[in-house]
Amino acid sequence: MKKKKLADSFSKKIKAYALKNALEHEGKARIESVLNALFHEGLKKEQIKSVLPKIKKTVEEINSLDIEKQKQLFKEFEREISRRKERTGLPELPEAEKGVITRFAPSPSGPLHIGHVATGMPSSLYVKKYGGKFYIRIEDTNPKNIAPEAYEMIEKEAKWVFGNVHAIIVQSDRLEHYYRYAEELIKKGFAYICTCEAEKFRELKKSKKECPCRNLPVTEQMDRWKKMLHDYKEGEAVLRFKSSMQLENPSLRDFPLARIIEKEHPRQGKKYRVWPLMSFSVAVDDIEYGITHVIRAKEHRDSAKRQEMIYKALGKKFPYTFFLGRYKFKDLEISCTKIRKLIQERKFSGWDDIRLPFLASLEKRGYQPEAFEKMAEVRGLSEVDKVISKEDYFELLDNFNREILKEKALPIETSETQKQGFEEVRILMPDATEKRIYAKIQNIKDNDIVYFKGLGYAKLNKDIFWFCHR
Ligand SMILES: [Zn+2]
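Above: inputs. Below: predicted complex with zinc ion.
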């Protein structure tokens, strides 16, 4: 099909999805969301190039309309939205022919769990598909929310589960870069040091008024910046981005880029006291590492808007950004902060307690990275949160894992009673109880995965088998 013809054949759908997306997000549609929707309508990889300009133009047009007008128009185009079952799988990415550079950026409040893997896997898979680089970036610029053991665990488990980690970046090792960008923004008039009391600034923000610090000359701002690095106390000064105090969304009005935290950093000690906020450090690193496509949790939507403003101020092209919904578990706790507390209280033996959904435990039980890849492929780039029970989640995961283990695991005869040639083995069950059976095991080494006939799969970890699933 000719370029023009193809774009025309999709043009009504483009309009329909752009309107739908705009109405779902305060009147602002995004190119990436429309592309994703078209993929589910059957758009092919080789067609992206020809429809992309049309999408860009349509999104621009629709975003310039007010919401009432968008609602009206949507009624006209709504029927273009398919009711048929969506195609599953990861959609093709725009401008990916020469490879993509992606990243997954956990904070070290704990090691990786199944929620992290779901968010990070698409970025890893796209690099496997198109070529390029996949970075892990540990976002540790808040000294108050760090589990020191997480650094090493994240590195080890990310390398295991993703298999294609190009490099590990640790943000707290990069403070000088953030400072350099901070100075650039100040010098260009895009940032200022605000010494207003937090309460007072909140009031100003609410009433869309500018604070007195905002329009001080650049030389004064640079002086204040030096004071921020050395003299001001915690809470006395904040580096702010000069967006606008008139913006509709209050979280975008002259948002903070960096603040002073005196607390000792677990990795850097007392070396630094000015710490960037996520919107800022993420923008700097994405620029410096040439990230081309970002796939991240949808709760970062506002943060992405702030980053886009920073990119614009610095004259850089913003990466294509896709947002993911999360798994919301009905009956499974995955918050690192909460679990850390339970470990401290000895309710769990550690991050690798067999009852926990952390990779430290799942790897020991015999779960395979490919099973997590399959899970991510099924989920695609859906922005919808998936409410799921622990049982249903693991039924899906176990099915994929079983397919892989069928080829790998060694089948083993078992018996409830002692028989010749059988020896007693200990199996750690998923509820943390120990089961003893007799089995005919020979030449089994640490880390081997076996299939105990009549019981299920398990992996040997120093004298005890960690049960995986039936
Ligand atoms: Zn101020």
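The first strand starts at residue 100 and ends at 104.
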